[in-house]
TrEMBL record:
NCBIfam families from the UniProt entry: PRK10738.1
Organism: Polynucleobacter duraquae
Matching InterPro entries: KH_dom-like_a/b (IPR015946), OsmC/Ohr_fam (IPR003718), OsmC/Ohrsf (IPR036102)
Pfam family name, one: OsmC
Superkingdom of the organism of origin: Bacteria
Official protein name in the record: Redox protein, regulator of disulfide bond formation
Region (Disordered): 19-39
């Protein structure tokens, strides 16, 4: 895996990242740090990537379990250390899984497997952060 990050210059603190899969993401900082608030912060993208990694696992596991899911959302909330480096110290992932005739135990199992076995992002971040999760299951009518 590789990624190229380039400073966009122009007296700001914006950066462009081109991933190994050929996609681009822009990052920027807040005005008080010299940025122009034109894009997500790098740490926000780490949090977003964590949610994406976990949701990917949950959807894949539920599909393999033949659950008819129609939506999987993850709301992440995080706390960071007050001093440098301002690592994440607490992260909660709240999963809302929606579908037809969902089996609550299978949804719980999928989230647990992601958390304990498959999600590389949460495993890595657990080195500095307490990671918790919660689940809502909504059945389609």
């Amino acid at each position: 895996m590789e990624c190229q990050v380039s400073w966009l210059g122009n007296g700001g603190m914006a950066f462009s990242a081109k991933t190994g899969s050929g996609h681009q993401v822009t990052m920027d900082g807040p005005p008080e740090a010299g940025g122009k608030n034109s894009a997500s912060r790098p740490m926000e993208l780490i949090l977003a990537g964590t949610g994406g990694c976990a949701a990917f696992d949950v959807v894949l596991i539920l599909q393999k379990a033949r659950q008819e899911i129609s939506a999987c959302d993850v709301q992440l909330t995080a706390e960071r250390a007050e001093t440098e480096p301002k690592v994440f110290t607490k992260i909660n992932l709240h999963f809302t899984v929606k579908g037809k005739n969902l089996d609550l135990s299978k949804v719980e199992r999928a989230v647990k497997l992601s958390h304990e076995k498959y999600c590389s992002a949460t495993t890595m971040l657990a080195k500095t952060a307490e990671i918790t999760y919660s689940i809502d299951v909504l059945n389609d009518e």
